[in-house]
Design a protein that fits this description.
The structure is a single chain. The protein is of the alpha/beta class. It is built from nine helices and 37 strands. The strands form five sheets. The chain has a 23-stranded parallel beta sheet that branches. A hairpin with a 5-residue loop joins β8 and β9. Bound molecules: uridine-diphosphate-N-acetylglucosamine and magnesium ion (MG).
């Protein structure tokens, strides 16, 4: 197979999505749909890839970040016009151009390679991918004539009733000789229901010119085009199911697979168990033998082996080392690091905070901008007061410190190794190693005082009554 050039059409408004976001940037399995098409293109090792952008071009270009050449189509006037815009970038190219749609993310590189191989074998001027679907609504219909040869593709909105009944549809994926393509594009007219330059008209033009047009049958699921939120949800469900099957095959247990969402970039070790409602997002890496509890949402975080995340935790860009335990109802915000066998319990929030090996913060605590050493006990209700209204400051708690309940650390502050902070302290100054800190009003006990109060109240009631 000689290396092709690839054109990806991604300039359309995506009107039917009713969205501010360009259609090709809508996410499927946690990645923009264009990412899938780009990877398919890259797998073909093309001479060049050109992505046609138009509607909110800056956003699409920012996503591409130089991975492909870009051609602008302004305004978007149809798929034929879009390809025309790409041709300037391919003026020096001679060979087969592969045209892909940015809204068809399930298409595999193997299928495109098969299309290309068939195209080369037949020597056709143009080969299009087609498939049969029971409900062809919205797709261009493939019209065949004598000897079953393809004669045209008719768009739904221009189709006569007999054409609408055709179940063979155009997948929107083509292999075409670049020199022929350039010539045929000059003949396109916008005399159709949408007033657009249809790429599909090139097929009728080629047939009329006596050129060979071939069709390659492809799998219907692979070429689902996303035009609406309904299509998006359908493709999303397919991708999610594929990812789940892949991880189950790798030894991951899912108690109710249909209620687990795993992004395509996530990795999971074997013997890890995922409870219902788990959502693993972004570049999350989970080690072996972890348990992720019901309703926990983990975003671009790294978990070691044997980590336990109890129910209903939100974990965002955190690192959790082997054997640590989190939750239920914990919130780990970006730059949290939990060292080996540390424990974070219910209603605990951490941000830019490191909790050392074997340390515990089991209840109702906020640890922000903090470095906490090994074997530290953080009592219930402890708060690092990290913000003075203008700046953030750090709290440092060294190894082996015991922090009693309801303690506030007014940062910046440092507590030396092995110190004990008595419950209810407000720590405003550094504490030396092995010291005890108590900062509370001395307790006063008045024997019998409560009883006497009740008695006085009782007498008042009697006189009122
Ligand atoms: C297109 C085909 C249809 C086929 C279907 C397969 C045409 C005229 N129709 O219809 O035969 O069955 O795909 O999914 O080609 N785009 C541009 N510039 C534009 C218009 C569109 O770059 O001016 C891009 C879109 O961003 C999209 C792709 O081309 O990625 C296809 O456009 P879309 O509007 O989705 O075409 P369909 O109606 O799906
Ligand atoms: Mg489409």
């Amino acid at each position: 197979m000689t290396a092709p050039a690839v054109i990806i059409l991604a300039a359309g408004r995506g009107k039917r999505m009713k969205s501010h976001t360009p259609k090709v940037l809508h996410s499927v399995g946690g990645r923009p749909m264009l990412e899938y098409v780009l990877r398919t293109a890259e797998a073909l090792a093309p001479v060049q890839t050109v992505v046609v952008v138009g509607h909110r071009a800056e956003a699409v270009e920012a996503f591409l970040a130089g991975r492909a050449a870009v051609a602008r189509q302004d305004p978007p006037r149809g798929t034929g016009d879009a390809v025309r815009c790409a041709m300037a970038a391919l003026s020096a190219f001679r060979g087969t151009a592969v045209i892909l749609s940015g809204d068809t993310p399930l298409l595999s590189a193997e299928t495109v390679a098969r299309l290309l191989a068939g195209h080369e074998r037949s020597g056709a001027a143009l080969t299009l991918a087609t498939t049969r679907i029971p409900d062809p609504g919205g797709y261009g219909r493939v019209v065949r004539g004598a000897g079953d040869a393809v004669t045209a593709v008719v768009e739904e909105r221009d189709a006569a009733p007999e054409h609408r009944a055709i179940s063979e549809v155009n997948a929107g994926i083509y292999a075409i000789e670049s020199s022929y393509l350039a010539a045929a594009l000059t003949l396109l007219k916008a005399d159709n229901a949408q007033g657009e330059y249809y790429l599909t008209d090139v097929i009728g033009i080629a047939v009329a010119q006596g050129r060979l047009v071939c069709a390659e049958a492809v799998d219907a699921e692979e070429v689902i085009g996303i035009n609406s939120r309904g299509d998006l949800a359908r493709v999303e469900a397919i991708v999610r199911e594929r990812v789940r099957q892949q991880w189950m095959a790798q030894g991951v247990t899912m108690l109710d697979p249909a209620r687990v969402l795993i992004d395509t970039g996530v990795t999971i070790g074997s013997d890890t168990v995922l409870a219902p409602g788990v959502w693993l997002e972004g570049a999350t890496e989970i080690g072996a033998a972890c348990v992720i509890g019901a309703g926990s949402h983990i975003i671009s975080s790294r978990l070691g082996e044997g980590v336990e995340i109890k129910d209903h935790c939100v974990i965002d860009r955190a690192v959790i080392e082997d054997g640590a335990s989190v939750g239920p109802f914990a919130h780990l915000r970006p730059d949290t690091v939990l060292r080996k066998k540390s424990k974070v319990g219910n209603f605990v929030e951490l941000k830019k905070a490191e909790l050392g090996a074997g340390s515990k913060a089991n209840h109702l605590t906020y640890l922000g901008d903090a470095t906490i050493g090994a074997d530290v006990n953080i009592g219930a209700g402890t708060i690092t007061c990290n913000y003075d209204g203008e700046h953030k400051h750090r709290t440092v708690i060294e190894d082996g410190v015991f922090v009693g309940s309801d303690t506030q650390f007014v940062a910046p502050v440092r507590v030396g190794k092995g110190a004990i902070i008595a419950a209810g302290a407000t720590v405003t100054a550094d504490v030396p190693e092995d010291a005890l800190v108590i900062s509370r009003v001395k307790q006063v006990v008045k024997p019998g005082w409560a009883k006497r109060l009740r008695e006085t109240r009782g007498k008042k009631k009697e006189t009122r009554g």
